[in-house]
Amino acid sequence: MREMALGRPGSVGPLGERALPGNDCFVAYALGPDRGLFFRLSACVSIYYNNHESMTTANKVTILRILLIPFFVVEILYYVRTGNELHRLLALLTFAVAAICDGVDGYIAKRYNQRSELGAILDPLADKLLLVSGVVVLSFDHEPYLANVPLWLTGTIIGRDILLLTGLVVIHLTVGKVKVRPHLLGKVATVLQMSVVLWVLLCWWEDWVLWISLAAALSTGLSGLIYVWDGVRQLSVHPASLPSRVPQEK
Question: Which of 13, 28, 52, 65 is a plausible cystine mate for 17, CB 3.0–4.6 Å?
Fold first, then answer.
């Protein structure tokens, strides 16, 4: 009997089956009737994964970070509603795992040369979603369980991100290619934002939340100005930003 599987014509399965030509890479493998279902399925899966490029490990870790965000938010909401310490600990653990994975996927991408265009988009997106979600949720009044993140810090973070996103769209439409150079101050702002979220979730000294939030807001605003300046420089050197010459009528 013949079973249909995904693969490339001419490839050989783990049991010695040879793929026959077919339409759209659907090929038939001559598997005898004595072959069990498990062996036939394993042949199909093996041929498929051997002949198709899979997503990089770094991108898989980044996607895991994104998938952890809803669980993180839900655990915070459950904690402030019920006061059960288990939910707070689970939220802390989820945030810590997501933060650690941020370094892990970056290390994997550099160490094993797994940099990709998808990773360049997903990695900063995962950072923003995690931080903005945490800051926004903790900005509401959760007394007496958790301290509140100041609204001016939330506004600064969201305002900067909206401004930078708008600038990226303008540069992409005008120049065609956006060059984003990471700055030390931007990394400091990210660390301070994470520190604010962790400090609130750890229920440490509440008075310190104000000072850490102030440092995070200042670094966030200044890093935003630096990125805006970089964007203006990219636009200024492009011909589209130069005044158009109107031909004079004779």
Answer: 13
